[in-house]
Protein: Heterokaryon incompatibility
Amino acid sequence: YEALSYRWGDEKSEVTIMIEGQLITVTPNLSMALADAQPTIKDSPLWVDALCIDQHNILERNHQVQKMATIYRKASRVHAWLGMPDKQNSNKGDSRVETLLSAIQERQYVADWISLAAGTELPYWNRLWIVQEIGLA
Structure:
């Protein structure tokens, strides 16, 4: 299986998406993260906390949170969705880690470093769970 690391965003705002013929309500950030990751997801199942854990069942949620380190460690790949670029600086930052990393690996131009720096300022990096989601991947 693969896993998705993303920032939930506004939990009070909801959008409806269709997964395997079922309508499911998710946050706008999750909807965008799934749409962005879809072209790179292989044929393996995708583990997403908001979809795989019953968020309304506190016992299940607490039990699953204890397993999250193992979930991310054992995933064959973790997709990290940083969020949408800043609308005022759309040429800075990026919603995909791969683009930021390839900018450094391929060219190391000043603009690439600016893009990387802007990407690290996105709210995604302020999340408590980032250490286990990315660090254990």
Residues 87-96 have pLDDT under 50 and may be disordered. The longest strand covers residues 15-19. Residues 2-135 form one domain. The CA atoms of residues 66 and 120 lie 27 Å apart.
